[in-house]
Every structure is written in structure tokens, then in C-alpha cells.
Amino acid sequence: MSRPIVATINRAALRQNLAVARQAAPHSRLWSVVKANAYGHGIERVWKSLAETDGFALLDLEEAILLRDRGCRKPILLLEGFFHPNDIELLDRYRLTTSVHSNWQIKALAEAKLSAPLDIYLKMNSGMNRLGFQSEQFHNAWQKLRSLVNVGEMTLMAHFAEAESAEGIVEPMQRINQAAQGLDCARSLANSAATLWHPQTHHNWVRPGIILYGASPSGQWQDIASSGLQPVMSLNTEIIGIQQLAAGAAVGYGARYRAAGEQRIGVVACGYADGYPRHAPTGTPILVDGTLTRTVGAISMDMITVDLTPCPQAGIGSKVELWGNNVKIDDVAASFGTVGYELMCALARRVPVVVE
Ligand SMILES: *Cc1c(COP(=O)(O)O)cnc(C)c1O
Fold this sequence. Notes:
The protein is of the alpha/beta class and 356 residues long. It folds into 2 domains: 11-213, Alpha-Beta Barrel (TIM Barrel); 233-355, Lyase, Ornithine Decarboxylase, Chain A, domain 1 (Beta Barrel), CATH 2.40.37. The chain has 11 helices and 18 strands. The strands form 3 sheets. Strands 1, 10, 13, 14, 15, 16, 17 and 18 form an 8-stranded mixed sheet that branches. Strands 8-7-6-5-4-3-2-9 form an 8-stranded parallel sheet. A two-stranded antiparallel sheet has the order 11-12. Helix 7 packs parallel to helix 8. The longest helix has 14 residues, at 11-24. The chain is elongated. The chain binds pyridoxal-5'-phosphate (PLP). Pyridoxal-5'-phosphate (PLP) binds at residues 33, 35, 79, 159, 191-192, 207-210, 217. Keywords: Isomerase, Pyridoxal phosphate. Its cofactor is pyridoxal 5'-phosphate. Its EC number is 5.1.1.1.
């Protein structure tokens, strides 16, 4: 028998989450964001379950080509555009829509020899100050691109730094409106948070990512608990050892946890080499034999130790859920200051994945 850890990908949940995203923005077309190997879920595994989408958005040219090679004929958007002028040849061959965020990309497009024009997402900087043109420079960049024979349809693209809150989109929307003035352009602005919570941002195309995978854009499960979204990934394993501690006995590397009194401890087959973060502290929620309990002591490379006090019936072979339908990935992440995004993206290659 192999090690008991397994990640399960629930395709029905993926389809359901896409339907929830669509209902939230019924008048917009929808890019399903599948960057970073579909947020750790495996782009090859999930893309067909997202067949109802209008297009796929991602970052890596390799992932875009993989989708085309598997027979995907929907629009594919490169969220950060091309990273080198030589890539344009592949955008042309595979018919990819590209974001454009810098002047060097405009120049490269002007000089490229294409078989047909490419559709462009011109990125404006909404105030996040990562990629894109300032609203004052946007017109100029737009006109330059518009005059190129190599450019087909054009869309204004922007991204929000704080779409979890109503105030977070006020200034960015002002900047975007300023940039779009007099252009009569299609727009794509909304990530998951804006798709769920800010209809005024929806416009022509929304770009949800995290909600497709059933986690919260705010990092708080409560914020999406009644939305109909369902976790897509479950990470499950088993107890492989039991220790009966005497008062004062320590557990794991660095003796970071000591039993106050007698205590039963379970040893779980999962560690940081599986993608469970080493900095998860004592107290991180975990489900053992259907009962919510907590981790104790340091996370090892291949093992986690848990408190069996609430589940005295648990023993070797008892089922453990690290995250999934019962223990929400958002709650696990929140207990050590990160977000579900990071945990799902970090699922290690050594973890076997089952699709159901
Ligand atoms: C990742 C990303 C998204 C999706 O963000 P979520 O918060 O996962 O919905 C949308 N747009 C851009 C430009 C992105 O990089």
C-alpha cells in the first residue's frame, strides 16, 4: 500500500462554482482564470469541467499551448502578455489574446510579422502600481496600438488591489473611467471579489479565479459561506502512529509543544514536503475521524502531530482531512496568516491526485 495521502478534485464543484460566478455577473462574458496550473488543481484535469466558460486566462505560454494541444478552441488570454518579443510568433501560431502593459510590447507588436491580427488587452494601472499604463498615458498607448495592422480587437484591462471592500474600488474606478474617457472601449476589470460583490465593475468580461476553486477572495470563508460555492480540492490522509504522552512530554522538532497533562497524540501522514506549510502553529484546525481537532508542535517534512483529546476513539488508520468540505482551506490558511490561494497553489507534486 502506498502512503495514504491523496488530494481529490471535485469536478461537480468546479462546474457549480462556474455557474455561481456566471449568476453573479449574468451580463458579462467570463474568463476562467487557470494560471499557476489552475491554482494547483492541475490545468489538464480541470479545464474540461470549465467547458461552459467563455475563455481561459493564464500566465504561462506553456500552459496556453497545452490547452490548444488538448483541443481547446476558446479564447485564451495571457494575463501578463508576452515576456519576450520572440514569443509573439507563438501567440500568432496559437491565436492567443495578449495583455500589453509596457511600451516595449507595443513596439514589438508593431514590428512583428503576423498571419492575422492579435486581440489585445491594454492594461491600465488602477493604482496598484504593478503592471500597466497610468491613466494619463493610457490614451496615447491605446491610439498607438489602434493604428497597428497587427492589432485586432482591443479591451481595456485593469485589476483591483482591494476589491474585498466597497471603498477599495472607488479610486481605482475613477482612474479607470478617466483612462477610458472618449474611447468607447470594451472593459475587463473584475477579479473574483469584484465579480461577487461589485456589479458596477462587471462590464464586458469578468475574470474570476479563486471562487472557481471554492475559496474566498477575502480569505474569510464566512464571506462566501452562503454563496453556493463549494471547495474543489480536498486533502486527505490517515493517522499512521499514536503516542501516549505523560505530563511535560514534548512533541516533534524543537520540542515546540509540551503536554500539560496526559495526552494522546496522533501522527498524520502529511508534512511540508506535501505542501502543508511548516509555519502552521499549534492550534491549526484539522479533522480526525470526523471530529475537529488541532495540530500540536512543529510540522515535519512528512508528518504532522495532532491532539486526539476530542476524538479518543481515533487510532491508526483513522481518516484525516487537512482541508476540504469540513475544514475549509480558508480557515486553515487564516490560522497562520495566509490565504487559501497559497495553500492550493503549493500542493506538492508528490501528492497523488484523484479526480471525481
Ligand atoms: C489572478 C488574476 C485574476 C483572478 O484573481 P482572483 O482573486 O483569483 O479571482 C484576475 N485578473 C488578473 C490580472 C489576475 O492576475
